[in-house]
Hints:
Radius of gyration: 15 Å
Helix content: 40-55%
Distance between the termini: 43 Å
Largest sheet: 2 strands, antiparallel
Strand order of the largest sheet: 1-2
CATH topology: Arc Repressor Mutant, subunit A
Number of domains: 1
Order of helices and strands: HHHEEH
Oligomer: single chain
Number of helices: 4
CATH class: Mainly Alpha
Amino acid sequence: MAGNWDFLTNHAHVLLCVAHDPGVRLRDIADSxxxxxxxxxxxxxxLVEEGYVEREKRGRRNHYKILPERPLRHPLxxxxxxxxxxxxxxxxxxxxxxxSRDQRRAG
Length: 107
C-alpha cells in the first residue's frame, strides 16, 4: 500500500501558497494544502514568528512577504535558503502558467 505522504511538509506547502499569492486568504491556503483554516493560521503564525514571513495588514486583509534569505531549518539543508527552495518549486508552476497564456493568445 502506497500510503498518504508527501515530500514536502505542510509548512512548505503554506509557504508556496504565499509565494504564489502574497494576498492569499487563510481559507484558500487551507483548501490548497488540505488542512483546516485553523491549521493554516497556526503554520503561518509560526512562519511569521520564526522570521520566514512578514505579515502586513492592508485594510481588512493580510499581505505576506517571504524573506528568501532565511536558511532552511533541517541540518541536512541548513546551508540552503528558503528562496532557493521556492525558486525550484515555483519554476514549474510559472512555466505552466506561461504556457497556458501563450496557448490562449494563439487560440
